Amino acid sequence: MGTAGRARRTWTRSFCRIIPLFVILSAALIGGRLVSVQGSAIPPGGLPSWNPSVPCTALLTTIEGVVGNQSNANGGGSFGGGKVQPGVPDKRSTSPPCTVNGNATFVEIHRVQMVTLSYTVEDCAQYPNGNFCDTTFNVQDPNCTSPDVYMCRLHLEIDQAWKSSGIAPGEPPVTTQLFDVQGFVYWDAEGVGGDWHSFSGWELHPLSAWRLSNSTTADFSITSNPGRFAVPQGSSPSGTIIVNSLDGFGGTVNMSATVDAAVANNVSLSLSAMTVSILPGGFASVVLAVQVSLSTPTGYWTIFVKGMSGSVAHTLLITLRVTPAPPNFSIFSTSPAATPVGSSATSAITVTGLSGFAGNVSLFDSPLPQGLTCGPISLGSLSLPPSPASASLSCNSSRAGIYTLTIAGFSGPLNHTITSMFTFTDFSISASPTSMTVATGSSGTSTISLGSLYGFTGSVSLTATVAPMDISSSLSPAYPTASLNPASVNIPANGTGASTLIVSASLLTIPGTYKVTVTAHSQTLTHSTTVFVTVPLPLLTTIGFTLNHFLF
């Protein structure tokens, strides 16, 4: 593939044609030649070509046997560590050499698995008999134990020139089942920089044939849809992990998921089920949820999904590509301290730009909860940078309570909300009893109870005033006197306090009804309660009146 073609390749290549999962796996008959072989396994040691157009004898190896164990800076196999160097010199040749410098170029690899349930058709060229394109995909060794996911993968391509010549195999199997491949090893240095090429220049290009793997041992495979994640910081992707029965496997598979230790503190994983049961020939699936924090380092990381059933274990390596979070902003507001009713409380609002955000953020605080009154936000529109930017909002209420206010910030399609709690405190006052009878020359008492509302705390001073309620009491030269013990009460948060109201009537107090008003005051808060006092006629006056009535 030329440099210009490679430059156009990104992880999500818009011109790629993804083949649906329902592609039917079948032998391909191209140009009258059967080149995709599905039959009995080739006996060990006898490795003829499955493609009649290839005269070479294949070297049985593995993905690791091609890639080697020497990784490059990106994590994939290096040229120097390759086990089948140098590979064929021309990947477009329809008759590549079987060996170069005495080293095999034509290999056979058994029981590989597609990394993603799709393949890509790209890098097209015009030939005399039509336009033909490469078919590309990546495979992995499901039993690979390397902690580096890319050392367990290999890029495969069915060549455009082979298609034009009618000697290419059909499209690869879009399946979870394991399959075998034959092809020529080629080193493409441009592949070192891309995860689409498993960060390695090693590939089988051209791929000459494939077949489904045959086995008599019950087993299972693990695949993921999607086969890799490309997500920005702060996102929460999810995928489906599929466990398939192979060769009649049936039983329970225990599942687990971990991530690279380097990002284990920044990425959390969860599976919807830790155990799945599979019937022979069936499958089961679980959901893998991934939480990538804003502080997760960007780059390529690996998720390890492991399945175990008795002594059989397989690990699926899923690439997690973390990209920088797109420009955004965050909004934060403080919940002011508890404030007495009648006073104002102020919330500080902070808007912070993220990932290079630049623009205007408009702030809104409506609708207001019932009972809360707020002024305008000090700066209804903030321009970033500089970041962070600040605004404030002051509110008050005429009655005690806790009010939840939602503050929203908008900038184009971006919007975020935050809640601020406004707490307004107060206290209550009550008297028990609320009425009493006090004879002249005596006293009566009533308990004045004070209670904290919504966390009120503080000192409350008490005063009492007496006023006549009828004509006779209004003529009294001496009203009853009222005092409070104590005259100041400290109320703890969410607690209570009490004082005793003492009302005394002197011998000069004219019988009648009097109103005693007890007023409680604390800072801006004032409340009162009333106790009614009745001063009856003296007992002797009543007896004298009765005797005079009967004598005369």
Structural summary, described in words:
The protein is mostly beta strands and about 550 residues long. It is about 5% helix and about 50% strand. The chain contains 5 helices and 38 strands. Strands 23, 25, 27, 29, 30, 32, 34 and 36 form an 8-stranded mixed beta sheet that branches. A 5-stranded mixed β-barrel has the order 7-9-10-12-11. A 5-stranded mixed beta sheet has the order 14-21-20-16-18, with no helix packed on it. The longest helix is centred in the C-terminal third of the chain and has 13 residues, at about 540-550. The model is unreliable at about 1-45 and about 540-550 (pLDDT under 50).
What does the secondary structure layout of this molecule look like, with pairings?
Elements: H1 3-7, E1 17-18, E2 29-30, E3 33-34, E4 59-61, H2 63-67, E5 99-100, E6 103-104, E7 106-114, E8 120-127, E9 130-140, E10 153-158, H3 160-165, E11 179-187, E12 202-212, E13 219-225, E14 228-232, E15 238-246, E16 251-259, E17 267-271, E18 275-278, E19 283-292, E20 299-309, E21 312-323, E22 328-333, E23 339-340, E24 345-354, E25 359-364, E26 372-374, E27 381-384, E28 389-397, E29 401-411, E30 414-432, E31 435-437, E32 442-453, E33 458-468, H4 471-474, E34 481-485, E35 488-491, E36 496-505, E37 512-522, E38 525-535, H5 539-551
Parallel strand pairs: 4-7, 10-12, 14-21, 23-30, 31-38
Antiparallel strand pairs: 1-8, 2-3, 5-6, 7-9, 7-11, 8-9, 9-10, 11-12, 13-15, 15-19, 16-18, 16-20, 17-19, 20-21, 22-24, 24-28, 25-27, 25-29, 26-28, 29-30, 30-32, 32-36, 33-35, 33-37, 34-36, 37-38
